[in-house]
């Protein structure tokens, strides 16, 4: 029987939450706090989780820690969420992580953007094909940040790997996204706005049906309000949410997104939900900016 991936496709057309990875005082991953943060997301109405995403500090975690985060997520979520596990690095490591996710019962993997300094378009296809072919029963979602990649290359990948069912598109250009999606096949894939709430309205207007979110860790209802508005085509309401989150997301995006995770963890720390520490090359938020983040988080929590 051919796998249709209907459940996975539906899960991508939603708020795709990227949980933070909280650290204990000694710097290790804090399992109990992580579980508590997941429960907060699930209780808040989130039904799609991406452990080991960039907001989870994927590249700062050890292989053992990435496995732990995957295991904790699957165990805590149970049947309350579809799990999209972030995988990447070299091909054998990515394949091992994908098979680990599959064996635990996860339904999909998101393949992180290759960080090799020399990425060819045909090599991009080969990299993703090797991972997708290793787990044909899982949905596979490439994370695209490469503005040079063409939609035809994605179509080529999916021709040989039908389990490539969605795309997390994170090039900050709505016109390029519109063209890329149509060149690859607009109806063939589920298109996820990979630059989260700030870009969701513009990307939805040209074909996206889901968006990723780090902000959702802090205020699940805010992210869910936006996607409800976008689904109904109510762009004025969606833009009211956009205005509500604008400053928070500007702080995350400043200086080349240097504080992308930092601002989210600072907001959670201000609410007493986890420690603010992040790992290098990220850094904790300067004291001068903490009060502003706390004020925003407090307003959302009312």
UniProtKB/TrEMBL annotation:
The keyword Lyase applies. Keywords: Lyase. Gene3D superfamilies: Aldolase class I (3.20.20.70). It comes from the Bacteria. GO terms for molecular function: 4-hydroxy-tetrahydrodipicolinate synthase activity. It holds the Pfam family DHDPS. Pyruvate binds at residue 55. The active site is at residues 143, 168. Belongs to the DapA family. This is Dihydrodipicolinate synthase.
């Amino acid at each position: 029987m051919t796998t249709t991936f209907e459940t996975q496709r539906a899960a991508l057309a939603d708020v795709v939450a990227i949980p933070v990875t909280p650290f204990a005082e000694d710097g290790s991953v804090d399992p109990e706090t992580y579980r508590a943060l997941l429960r907060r997301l699930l209780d808040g109405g989130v039904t799609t989780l991406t452990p080991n995403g960039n907001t989870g500090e994927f590249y700062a975690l050890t292989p053992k820690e990435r496995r732990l985060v995957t295991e904790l997520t699957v165990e805590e979520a149970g049947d309350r969420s579809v799990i999209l596990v972030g995988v990447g690095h070299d091909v054998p490591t990515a394949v091992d992580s994908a098979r680990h996710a599959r064996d635990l019962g996860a339904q999909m993997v998101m393949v992180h953007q290759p960080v090799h300094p020399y990425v060819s378009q045909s090599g991009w296809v080969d990299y993703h094909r090797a991972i997708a072919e290793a787990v044909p029963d899982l949905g596979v979602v490439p994370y695209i940040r490469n503005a040079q990649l063409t939609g035809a290359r994605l179509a080529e990948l999916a021709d040989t790997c039908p389990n490539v069912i969605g795309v997390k598109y994170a090039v900050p250009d709505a016109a390029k996204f519109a063209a890329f999606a149509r060149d690859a096949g607009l109806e063939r894939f589920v298109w996820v706005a990979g630059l989260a709430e700030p870009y969701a309205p513009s990307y939805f207007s040209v074909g996206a049906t889901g968006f990723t979110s780090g902000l959702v860790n802090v205020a699940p209802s805010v992210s869910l309000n936006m996607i409800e508005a976008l689904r109904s085509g109510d762009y004025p309401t969606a833009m009211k949410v956009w205005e509500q989150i604008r400053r928070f997301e500007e702080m995350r995006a400043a200086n080349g997104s240097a504080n992308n995770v930092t601002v989210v963890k600072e907001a959670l720390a201000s609410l007493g939900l986890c420690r603010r520490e992040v790992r290098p090359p990220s850094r904790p938020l300067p004291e001068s900016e903490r009060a502003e983040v706390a004020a925003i988080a407090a307003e959302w929590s009312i």
